[in-house]
TrEMBL record:
Signal peptide start-end: none
PANTHER family: PROTEIN KINASE DOMAIN-CONTAINING PROTEIN, SERINE/THREONINE-PROTEIN KINASE SBK1
Protein name: Protein kinase domain-containing protein
Domain of life (superkingdom): Eukaryota
UniProtKB keywords: ATP-binding, Kinase, Nucleotide-binding, Serine/threonine-protein kinase, Transferase
Gene3D superfamilies: Transferase(Phosphotransferase) domain 1
A Pfam cross-reference name: Pkinase
Binding site for ATP: K62
UniProt family annotation: Belongs to the protein kinase superfamily.
Residue ranges constituting the Protein kinase domain according to the UniProt record: 33-299
InterPro entries for the chain: Kinase-like_dom_sf, Prot_kinase_dom, Protein_kinase_ATP_BS, Ser/Thr_kinase_AS
GO molecular function: ATP binding; protein serine/threonine kinase activity
């Protein structure tokens, strides 16, 4: 995939944002929607279940306070979501963006069964068939995003919404961090377990042009969480002892230092994760390589006995 792809995506988004800004409707939520209940809250936004007063349609409403949100950032998130919607594993949009006195807002599909984080059992994760179903759909969504020349940059269970039973239909949401491939990132705010190591150390450098490999890394971390119920580390910096042990494994193949959670995984699952989370981004597997591992078991037979 060429960098031009990222450039095309950036140009198209810029045009969409200009047109959306010109057509941004002014309204107060209560005029057209009845508020039913809160669905979730993130760092930037507040998501509520609402019902269209005339038609009775249930919808999710994301509100971003004007006080802390630049109009450009709101338009960007809305337009990216609109470009990507329509894929079966990406949240559907209603095509309505507006501003009220205090907020910017848009309306999209509501997931009444919440997000993936709500079903991950601490110290256990989720059942293996459900984890594999999630993986397949997530890979579909990420490949679609990558084909559009975009890097998602926010793979985590809080952004994976559940429709249907046993993860039969999941959808990605929250495109606030999505950027065209090749965008140079100078500052990463807050290193979390999902942050690829090349981004954890950008303070003194010129910046890193982002690539699809960031999503491959985060997918690896997510799969570890789904299979064990633990994060593999807190931060992807060498001062984190769990990450340090992982570096040793990646560089030498020696597994002794790894925490016991890794022992719950089969050789095939370990191989899959080591390729998704190659320390060198240019050696990282693309996300679709994970599909090759779906027919192998991911957890060893006695994995529950390994939990102390
Ligand atoms: N369509 C939806 N249906 C049901 N719940 C939703 C929906 N959209 C979001 N949520 C819930 O609201 C939470 C916050 O939403 P979202 O991630 O969009 O906000 P944010 O402020 O951008 O989050 P972050 O802090 O990750 O940037 C999600 O983690 C999810 O639990």
């Amino acid at each position: 995939m060429s960098l031009n792809n990222g450039l095309e995506a950036a140009n198209m988004l810029e045009e969409m944002m200009k047109i959306t800004a010109q057509n941004l409707v002014k309204m107060e939520v209560s005029q057209h929607y009845e508020i039913i209940k809160e669905l979730g809250k993130g760092k930037y936004g507040h998501v509520t279940l609402v019902m269209h007063r005339q038609r009775g349609t249930p919808m999710a409403l994301k509100l971003l306070p004007k006080e802390s949100t630049k109009q450009q950032n709101f338009l960007y998130e809305y337009c990216v979501a609109l470009v990507l919607s329509g894929h079966p594993n990406i949240i559907g949009m209603f095509g309505i963006a507006f501003e009220s006195e205090e907020h910017y807002g848009f309306l999209y599909e509501a997931a009444l069964q919440r997000d993936l984080i709500s079903i991950i059992k601490p110290r256990e994760g989720i059942l293996e068939p459900a984890a594999k179903l999630c993986t397949k759909q997530l890979v579909n969504a990420l490949e679609f995003i990558h084909h559009k020349g975009l890097v998602y940059r926010d793979v985590k269970p809080e952004n994976i919404l559940i429709f249907g039973r046993d993860c039969q239909n999941i959808k990605l949401t929250d495109f606030g961090l999505t950027r065209p491939r090749g965008t140079v990132l100078k500052l990463v705010s807050g290193i979390i377990p999902y942050t690829a190591p090349e981004l954890s150390n950008t303070q003194n450098c010129e910046g890193v042009p982002i690539d699809f490999t960031l999503d491959a890394w985060a997918l690896g971390v997510l799969l570890f969480c789904l299979m064990t119920g633990y994060f593999p580390w807190e931060k992807t910096v060498p001062s984190d002892p769990f990450f340090e042990d992982f570096i040793v494994w990646q560089k030498t193949g020696i597994t002794e230092g790894l925490s016991y959670h890794w022992k719950k995984l089969t050789t095939e699952a370990m191989d899959m994760l080591s390729k998704l989370m190659s320390l060198n981004p240019s050696e990282r597997s693309p996300v679709n390589k994970v599909l090759r591992y779906l027919d192998y078991p991911w957890r060893v037979a006695n994995w529950r006995a390994l939990e102390k």
